[in-house]
């Protein structure tokens, strides 16, 4: 049986189920069960990088696993419109030497003709969420943003 035959179709319910298995309540994340849902030519993009192709995407996931002690994700809201699935989340990253850092963001998944994820885009404010955990610095950072951009 091929991977395509054993792969369930992606929708709101399957995303919730698959992503809840990815981010463990205790221990490191494990993406191995969702890689088959990604197209070979996946384009992943977030605040800090753009990744082209499944091999580089898997390598990025493995690097994140190595860097964190634990990683949790809570999906807050999820919606689907045709071949686009979007969800809001809180991801809490626990590092070996630093305090837990919650990141608030959204993910947009675009499904290709074969039902696999061809585009994966994460949206979040990496520096704002990190700086919020540094006493006094978060307030200075926000003031700077308002003064320069708001």
Describe this structure in words.
The protein is α+β, with helices and mostly antiparallel strands and 150 residues long. It has a single domain (7-149), classed as Nuclear Transport Factor 2, Chain: A, CATH 3.10.450.50. Helix content is 32%, strand content 35%. The protein has a six-stranded mixed β-sheet with strand order 2-1-6-5-4-3. A hairpin with a 6-residue loop joins β4 (84-94) and β5 (101-111). The chain is globular. The relative contact order is 0.15. The model has no long low-confidence stretch (mean pLDDT 85).
Unreliably modeled segments: none
According to DSSP, the number of beta strands is 6
SSE order in H/E notation?
Answer: HHEEHEEEEHH
State the name of the first-level CATH class.
Alpha Beta
| Distance, first to last CA | 55 Å
Mean pLDDT level: 85
Helical stretch tally: 5
**Anisotropy-based shape:** globular
Integer count of domains:
1
Q: Could you tell me the strand content as a percent range?
A: 35-45%
**Estimated helix fraction:** 25-40%
CATH topology: Nuclear Transport Factor 2, Chain: A
């Amino acid at each position: 049986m091929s991977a395509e035959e054993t792969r369930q179709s992606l929708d709101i319910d399957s995303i919730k189920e698959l992503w809840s298995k990815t981010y463990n309540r205790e221990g490191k994340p494990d993406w191995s069960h969702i890689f088959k849902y990604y197209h070979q030519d996946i384009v992943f993009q977030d605040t800090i990088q753009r990744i082209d192709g499944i091999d580089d995407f898997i390598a990025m996931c493995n690097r994140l696993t190595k860097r964190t002690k634990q990683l949790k994700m809570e999906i807050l809201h999820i919606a689907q419109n045709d071949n686009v699935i979007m969800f809001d989340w809180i991801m809490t990253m626990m590092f070996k030497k630093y305090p837990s850092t919650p990141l608030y963001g959204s993910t947009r998944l675009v499904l290709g003709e074969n039902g696999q994820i061809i585009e994966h885009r994460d949206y979040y404010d990496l520096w704002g969420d990190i700086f919020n955990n540094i006493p006094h610095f978060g307030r200075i950072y926000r003031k700077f943003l308002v003064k320069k951009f708001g």
